[in-house]
Description:
2 copies of one chain form a homodimer.
Chain A lengths: L3 E7 L3 E7 L5 E8 L6 H19 L5 E8 L2 E2 L4 E3 L9 E2 L1 H9 L3 E5 H12 L8 E6 L3 E7 L2 E2 L32 H4 L1 H14 L16 H9 L3 H25 L3 E5 L7 H14 L9 E4 L4 H20 L1
Parallel strand pairs in A: 1-4, 4-8, 9-12, 12-13
Antiparallel strand pairs in A: 1-2, 2-3, 5-6, 6-7, 9-10, 10-11
Helix pairs in contact in A: 1-2, 3-9, 5-7, 6-7, 7-8
Amino acid sequence: MKSYVIGFDLGGTNSVLALVDKEGGIAARTSFRTDEFEEVDEYVDRCAEVIGGLIERAGGKEQVVALGIGAPDVNYESRCIENATNLPWKGVVPLADKIERKTGIRTVMTNDAKAAALGEMLYGAAKGMKDFIMITLGTGVGSGIVVDGKIVYGKRGFAGELGHISVRPENGRACPCGRKGCLEAYCSATGVARTAVEFLETRKTDSLLRRISASAVTSKKVYEAAVEGDGLAREIFEYTGRILGEALADCATFSDPEAFILFGGLTKAGEFLLEPVVRTYHEMVFENYRSTACILFSELKEADAAVLGAAALAWTAGIDFK
Amino acid sequence: MKSYVIGFDLGGTNSVLALVDKEGGIAARTSFRTDEFEEVDEYVDRCAEVIGGLIERAGGKEQVVALGIGAPDVNYESRCIENATNLPWKGVVPLADKIERKTGIRTVMTNDAKAAALGEMLYGAAKGMKDFIMITLGTGVGSGIVVDGKIVYGKRGFAGELGHISVRPENGRACPCGRKGCLEAYCSATGVARTAVEFLETRKTDSLLRRISASAVTSKKVYEAAVEGDGLAREIFEYTGRILGEALADCATFSDPEAFILFGGLTKAGEFLLEPVVRTYHEMVFENYRSTACILFSELKEADAAVLGAAALAWTAGIDFK
Lengths: 322, 322
C-alpha cells in the first residue's frame, strides 16, 4: 500500500490539510476556518477530526509517515507558535506536541516561508537543488534559505528574514518592523503601492494610475496599468526590480546559491518584475557568482504551494528520523 | 601515543606547517618562503620534506590523522587552487591531490578565511558554537560562515564573500572587485585609510593626521592618532564601525548567528572600532536578533590563527571521514 504524509497549512484565516504522496500528488484535501477557534484546544480537537478522516482515506495510520505543519511565528526548536500576530491564540502555543499527542502521528512544524522552500525543493522549481534561496513577495517579504539540502535555522530558528536586510541604509523608507530602508518596504506588494504613490506625487508624467485615488492604488492596479502600456507603471516595476536585483546580488555572497526562487502575489507581474531583477542582478553581483545563480519563479500552483511545503517538511523529517 | 594533525597555512609570502594536537597545542612548527618556488612540483617536494620531518616528530605516520591546508583561491570541491592572484603558480593547481599522493597523508584544503572560522570554532572565541560568522578585517574583508556546525560552501564553494555585500548602494566607493559600495571598500585596513583621506580633505578639523602626507596614512596611523585623543581619528573609527555594525545587522537576518567573530589587523583598533560596531548593530538589527548575537574579537594569537585554522580543518575532516 502507498505511503503518505499529511501537509498542514495553518494560516490566519484558513487551515488547509491534505494527504500528499511522495511525488506531490494530493490524494485528499480539507479546509476549515482558523479564526473561528478562540481556544487552541478546541482548534486541536477539530484538527484531530480532520486528520482522522485523512488517515482513514490513506488506509490506516501505518500509511501515514508524518505530519508537517507550516505556520507563522514558529519556533522550530521548541515546536511552539510564539506570539503570533495573525492567529487567535496568544503567547506560546506548543501546537506540534498537542497535535502529535492527540493523533499519534509524528509531527514537525516550521515557518511557512521555510516550508515553502522545502516544497519547492521536493516538488517545484528547486527540484534537485541543494543550495537555493526562496523569496516570497507578498504583503511582506519572507524567505527560506537552503544550504547543502537543509533549511538554515540559525541559533534560535530565526534565520532567513531577508525581508529585513537594509537596501537603502541612507534615507530609507520606514518598514513596519520599525527600522528603515528594509527590502520589504520596497519589494512587497505594499512596497509597490508605496512606490506608486511616491512616483505619482513627485513626477509629472501622465498615467492611468492618476484615475484612481492614492489610497486605492495596489500592486495589482499597477500591474494592470503596465499591461496597458502605462509608462509610469512600468517604471514602478523597473524601480522595484532593480532594488530586488541588488538585494539578491548581496544574498549571493552569503551562500553562493544555485538559484533564487521567487514566489507570492507580486510574481504575477511576470516579466515586468523579472526582467529588471535579472538584469540588475547580473550587473551588480560579485564576479564569482555572475555565471551561476539563476532567478526563477516558483513552479507550484499558488493554491497548492503552502500545503505541499508542509508535506515536504513531513517527508524530509521522515527521512531524517530513520 | 598521541594523535596529531598537520596544519598548513599557505600564504603568498610564507608557508607555515605545524603539528597540532586535538586541543590546539602546537608541538612543532616549520616555515619557509612560498615565493621562491616558481614550479609547483618543486614546491610540493619541499612541502613533502617538511611534512616528513613533522611526521617523524609525531612518532610516525600512524600518529598523523590528516593534513589541512588553508590557502587563497581554493575550490573546495575540486581540491584545487584556481587562478590565485598572490601565488607564483598560474591556472588550476590540484595541490591537495599532489600533497596527498606525495606524503600518503589524507589531505583537505579550503580557503583561508573558512579555515580561520573552523580554527575559531575548535580553539577560539567560537568554541562550542554551531552558528556564527567570522569576519576577517585585513587588507580586504573576508568571511567564513558556520551554520549548524558546518562551513557554508554553496553551489560552487564561493559562499561567504561578505566583503562584497553592498553597504552604500547609492554613490558608493569603488571597490577593487570592480563594483561600488562594497563593505570591503569601507571596513578593511585600506578602507580606513581611504576614509581618513576623505575626512582630511572634506573637513576643516585639526588633526595629528595632517602631519603626514595623504599617501602615508594607514589604519595603524589612524589608530595611533586615536590613542593620542585625536578627534578626527576617532571619528574615522566611528564611521567605520557604524558601517560594519549595519552590515552585521543585515548578515544576522541570513543565518541568525550566535556570534560574529572579528579577526585581522584592523581589530587592533580595539574599542575604537568595537564600541561603534556593537552600538550600531543593536540599534539597526531586526528585533528577533537584538538579544542574541554578540560581537567578539578572535581569541587566537594572530601568529597561530591561520595554522590552527588549517589544523581545525584537518581535525574536522578527520571526524567526517570516520
